[in-house]
Structure formats: structure tokens, C-alpha cells
Amino acid sequence: MQRMSIHQVSKFRRAFSLVLLLFAQGQSVAHAQTRAIEFAARSCKQVSSCEEAVVLWCSGYRRADGDNDGIPCENVCSTLEQVNEIRRVIGC
User: Fold this and answer.
1) Could you report the per-residue pLDDT of 5-32, keeping only the tens digit for each?
2) Residues 84, 45: Cα–Cα separation, whole Å
């Protein structure tokens, strides 16, 4: 498995924080996710948490769930329950 650089980790943290901030400020979830995806990963190899994977998936990266089992980026997400809870929280 490829390790992420410090720069990549920082970029993901900013993107996820942006989603939470915009959502807390009353922005629509879709708007928050769209803004976050501008700063976030472009593939599952680049995510370091299930939260980032779900945001990536909900923002339109359909290859995140290649086997269509409802679990994106199985390198960081392990259960459907975990994914569904994150989706509920972010409104995806």
C-alpha cells in the first residue's frame, strides 16, 4: 500500500474540515462536497480515512465502489454500517 505524503494528509484534512465548516454555516451539503472535492483526492489510493472516501464517493467518484457493494474505498472503509453512518452525518 502506498503511503501518503505529509502534504497529501494536510490537503485531505483541509478538505474534510471545509465540508464540516460549510455544512455548519448552513451551506448545502452538495455545495460543501463540491468545494471539498476541489481540494481532495482523486482516487481511493489517496484517501486516508473512510470519511474522506465517502466524501469522494458522494462527490461523484463512482469508481470508489467498483464492486457496487455500497462500500467505497475498501482500503479504508470496512463495513456498510460505517459508510451509512458517515453518509447520514454528511447528508449524502
Assistant:
1) 665 655 666 666 656 655 655 656 666 6
2) 21
